């Protein structure tokens, strides 16, 4: 600072040095001036103004939703009877599956009646001494009146315990009363609980039928895989057709089940 003042004094007052002297004085004045705070600098007219940001509404980006899962429907298989006949016994296949379906329908008639009948009780299986018998083989069964069924075991009195056990497992909601060698069975009232129990029994009979059909399916597929004279493509095609036939029988059985359950539950 003292050196700068010395320079100014040495220049003197001549006109030639006046302009240089003024410039040096201006530079010194600016250097000695206090610095302005940043807040004031922000409002300085010498600062360049940043262009205003246009008023644009923000764009919201949504993640794309996952596509809805397509229903995994089974591929429809066309059954070629002629092709099947060259490899398996189609008649036997259908006959065994049909037998399982008919058995279920027969069980529906015998065991799923809203009103207990002598016919339903006659067909109840009884396990006696390791052998299976029907109830009518062991007792004389008659309907005494609309509300009572009588079973006379005078010929096979030793079968009464097994008969009682079979009746309790029949699912017909029976409550037999024993008097010597005779059983008196009150015909149960048709209650909501009784209807629901019969509907459950129908489902159990359907599952039994379904399992029987699948057993037949598995049996013929095993026979198919033991054949070496057919090509791999033909074996795969025949296997799919066997499964398709089994699926059709099971679908028919399920339709019969739905109809029976609607009847038992009193649905239209």
TrEMBL record:
The answer to whether UniProt assigns keyword Disulfide bond to this entry is no
- Return the SUPFAM superfamilies for the record: Ribosome recycling factor, RRF (SSF55194)
Q: Which InterPro entries match?
A: Ribosome_recyc_fac (IPR002661), Ribosome_recyc_fac_dom (IPR023584), RRF_sf (IPR036191)
A biological process from GO: translation
Which residues does the UniProt record annotate as the domain Ribosome recycling factor? 105-265
**Pfam families (alphabetical):** RRF
Molecular function via GO: ribosomal large subunit binding
Keywords in UniProt for this one? Answer: Protein biosynthesis
GO cellular component terms, alphabetically, are: mitochondrion
- What's this protein's family per the entry? Belongs to the RRF family.
Name-wise, this protein is Ribosome-recycling factor, mitochondrial
Q: What is the lineage of its organism?
A: Eukaryota, Metazoa, Ecdysozoa, Arthropoda, Hexapoda
- Gene symbol here is 109539489
